[in-house]
Amino acid sequence: MTSIQGKVRFGVGLGADTTPEDLPGIVDHLERSGADSVWFSELVYSPAVDPFIGMAYTLSRTTRLKAGTSVAILPGRHPVLVAKQVASLAALAPRRVLPVFGLHSALPAERDVFTVPPGRRGAVFDESLELLRAVLRERDVSFDGEFFTVRSADVQPVPTRPVDIWLGGSGPVALARIGRLADGWLGSFLTPAEAAEARRQIERAADAAGREIEPDHYGISLAVAAGEIPDDLYDMARRRRPDVDPTELIAADWPTLHRRLDDYLKAGITKFVVRAVGPGDRAAFLERFVGELLPRQN
Q1: Is 278 left (phi over 0), alpha (psi -120 to 50) or beta?
Q2: What's the pTM?
Q3: All structural domains of the chain
Q4: Which of 3, 79, 166, 190 has the most C-beta neighbours closer than 10 Å?
Q5: What positions does the domain Luciferase-like occupy (predicted)?
């Protein structure tokens, strides 16, 4: 049996079909059940709750449940203001804030909302991360960059325990950025073999930068259907990853998800954000999530 490094944890990912009216019941159910976390996607043009608003609501309503973003877009936001949001949440709910940031929206229609100089999104991301991390760890930060300049930035309260900043992404540039600048990785639409290789690339980049990412700070977002992958999701996966059979990326049912989880665990992935796709009752999904996955936590 493969030795598992670190804690295996499962959280629920919320999609575009989760409305503000749905949120209280979901949060209360997950808090009662002992689920690890709930995750909010950046979906501007949908009824879904904004990720930072959703985290604040969840953390104020619970005492144990963690809340994260999967993922929030950083380039196009001022990193000092983002740091203030993260620091405030961490002060209100220590150790329960799980920010994950990405390069750009997966939805082309929303990319114009997060404006950066043309052709410089990656460079803006790198600089944003450097400034974000600095003001979350220090007082009186002065920073002179290509895109941001601040004098005596003093975000308070500085978290007593540093907040881990995770990143999404799966391309070579993204994985190198994670190794250089991030505390963890949350991937998506990758097979277990691809996730294993992504982890190795991140570890090599971290080593080259003189850094080390904790062994259990590698995660992936997964989708599970109620017996059959919906046609629209199948087609979307085919467009996003034309080189991979969508059935290798989306679990059609819970037995398939369990088999896939075994492979991800062997690949060194221990954090999982699981979302329901297709028609089905949300309450039934939450009950199934609790019954199927919480026993697999260690």
Answers
A1: left
A2: 0.95
A3: 9-296 (3.20.20.30)
A4: 79
A5: 9-239
